[in-house]
Amino acid sequence: MRVLFLYPYAVGSVASFVRPANIIKRLLARGVKVTLATVCHLRRASTDINLSLLEFPYLKSVPHVRLFAERGAVLRNTLIVNRLLRSHDIVHLQKCHPIVSIPATIASALSGKPLHYDWDDNETEILRSMISNGVASAGQAREFAFVERRLVRLVDTISVASQRLRSLALQYGASPDALFDAPVGADLSLFAPRRFSREKLDSLGVRPPMVLYQGQLEEASFAEAFVECAVRVAEAVPEAQFVVVGGGAKLERLRELAVANRVPVTFTGYISHRMVAEYVSAATVCVATFPDTELVRCKSPLKIAEYLASGGAIVASEVGDVPRMVSGAGILVPPGDIGGLAEG
């Protein structure tokens, strides 16, 4: 079988590529041949994160086709996808971005080849969360809403990352027989309980007790609450160390917030997934902060799966799929309750 895999960003331009990369890894392990077609948004590509840093060496053997982001890209991309589908059996669509989803649906209909859609986030809500700071416009959010609501009726099968996305898919008219649950999972070759020597902890620059938050720090992230929580914990436990693992557009703002609140927080920036696993394993407590929003209710948080796999103590906001994932293996507090997070 040959799969044409469509992804709306450049490989390595955002940390959300972890999920599609691992889907590709498992397809390759089953003997499936994959062609990866990605869109290069030059203005959005980060300079401090790339394919080698994310440690997906198996992708080097995957044929890679560039799709376009410029004006008129939908038509150009449709022609490219339609041509590629002649030598493929199925198209896999990652995310609903119109720049790839419209070409995918048209090419699938023209070729008669099945279209699978992996719905892993509420993209409309992500864009809406970015309007206030000028990263996205209301027009873009409306465009995504139009596509996201209709796409589930135009594809052959859908995998959903969360129960809320399953509910929305049914609400928007998806066939129950076409829906498959595909929550996030941790890479157990990286994330596992382990004990570190003092020398190893020194090499990471950490010491117990260490309180950790990990995740991409892009516009739709929620690490500010962790910094606010750290202020309160530091008052009660002065020896505690606070570490934020991850990078993104909010990194400098979070650093400024920590300085303004006079709380010592170590920020690693983007690091390899293997290094992320080492920091998570070294943590005394792992924190996952979320507000109660439609965006969060649609998420299947990867950090929760990785915290669980590492066997550490977890304090998390009780929202969306988080209670189902934690299921008694951590402390849950109401979303937005900074005091509850600190007490946990």
Description:
The chain has helices at residues 18-29, 51-54, 73-85, 98-111, 123-130, 138-154, 163-171, 198-204, 224-236, 251-260, 273-282, 294-297, 302-310, 322-326, 338-343, and strands spanning 2-7, 33-39, 64-67, 90-94, 115-119, 157-160, 179-181, 210-214, 241-245, 265-267, 285-288, 313-317, 331-333. With 344 residues, it is of the alpha/beta class. It has a seven-stranded parallel β-sheet, with helices on both faces. The protein has a six-stranded parallel β-sheet with strand order 10-9-8-11-12-13, sandwiched between helices. It is 41% helix and 17% strand. α14 (322-326) links the parallel β12 (313-317) and β13 (331-333). It is built from 15 helices and 13 strands. The protein is globular and about 65 Å long. The chain has two domains: 2-181, 3-Layer(aba) Sandwich (Rossmann fold); 198-343, Rossmann fold (3-Layer(aba) Sandwich).
